[in-house]
Amino acid sequence: MPGQRPPVPPFTEETARRKVQAAEDAWNSRDPERVALAYTEDSEWRNRDVFLTGRREIVAFLTAKWQRELGYRLRKELWAYTGDRIAVRFEYEFHDADGQWFRAYGNENWEFDPNGLMRRRFASINDLPITADERRVAFPEQT
């Protein structure tokens, strides 16, 4: 069906895990347009202290994010699911223009419409400066 983004709710453990993996893959592409297609046209976001509404704002936010957060690499893990909601925990690493590495830890709460598009995303995130030697082996080098 056009406009659907499988898997769709209600989620099972298997479909929730697939949704989380699809999100991880899209975010690791660092392609704001690709990522934004997973959200409703009027999706509501809270990312740290930034509040966004709609795909256009999401694309602008992600474009700026990945211009600042270089070498970005993300891992997501299913935390919980029910009906049309999924909670994940995640960590990602990136470096800034000066070469300082960071690891960000956080949690996200997601709510989906019946077509499997995310209509709400609320993220709480904390950054930790790390050295290049402290980077996770599971994060292959990307620039």
From TrEMBL:
This is DUF1348 family protein. Residues 1-26 are annotated as: Disordered. Transmembrane segments: none annotated. PANTHER family: SLL0781 PROTEIN (PTHR31757:SF0). Pfam families: DUF1348. Residues 1-10 have a biased composition (Pro residues). It comes from the Bacteria.
